[in-house]
Amino acid sequence: MTSIVSKLPQVGTTIFTTMSALSAEVGAINLSQGFPDYNCSPELIELVNKAMKDGHNQYAPMAGVKALRDEIAYKTKKLYGADYDPDTEITVTAGGTQAIFTAITAVINPNDEVIVFEPAFDCYAPAIKLAGGVVKSLELEPGNNYRIDWTMVKKLINNRTKLIILNSPHNPTATILHQEDIDELSAIVKDQDILILSDEVYEHLIYDGEIHHSMARYTELQQRSFIVASFGKLLHATGWKIGYCLAPAYLMQEFRKVHQFLVFSVNSAMQQAIAEYLKDENIYLNLPAFFQEKRDHFRKGLAETKFELLPSYGSYFQSVRYGHLTNANEADTDFALRLTKEAGVACIPTSVFYTQGTDHKVLRFCFAKRQETLDDAVNRLIDFKL
Question: Residues near 361 by Cβ (< 8 Å), separated by ≥ 6?
Fold first, then answer.
């Protein structure tokens, strides 16, 4: 057998696959992987069927269906006041993860350094390493609600720093960027040759009257940013794997050079259907209230358990601390497995989002579920003998 040298020697099966498989095996309620257990809009499904019957079954344009790019431009202008040219600054992708990989691959060269805030979604570091870049991690802690210490960010920056990756609303911590963060970020990158990759796939899932501080709102930041979004989160259809990237033309030109050889184009009929569906602005304007109701209901139930609830400002995740309930030596990975097998509720241990496996005794639950699913999960957690 021919030997190979792995480019990702430390990478195995993702925690999402592991926990979902275990959940199915033991019959647990799966609050681990982030996907709804309810269907997307019947109207949207009908629009997809119509698009297929109307003949939209061949390759879409490489950058995406023009009607959809137009709707994305309109939505972005309406929400953030930002102008993006549909022809040169918007590309439809095969999900948010592909957009993230493409952006990193397009601009990171060997030995370029990329600042990543941990806990971080697990696709960032592998993409950086495959491009030959160097991951510079800054760990955030639940004790201060995972706020970024911008003084530490300044210390990480040097002449090899090429990219800062941000994620707001944040997975897994459900935190968001605030105006102070934007001010600090703007001051740090001013007059620096540093790009930003802003993972904003949960942009519409933000609560309590807060606003989403998209990079698109701020001209100085917009002009150096790739912004990644996801229709899977917006349309309750994560299995469709359709997202998009916004970037100024000089960055999008490089993005498309990679995109065209990675996937070339994305599902034609679904793009046509989404373009038509998004003409109803309430689809995205009503989404925060829809998910806040689920968050509030889930938090109210969890308050009856022995877990300590952390804030959930955005996304469809709720994190809890358990360290005060169990042997301090029990790793979050072990506790999550025990919770799945014994309580019948699957979650994600957040140590897997840290390069060093830092364990703050925090678990992440997904509340993008039907009310009866959440109620059943809460009752099981209440009955669980810790």
Answer: 321, 322, 323, 328, 332, 335
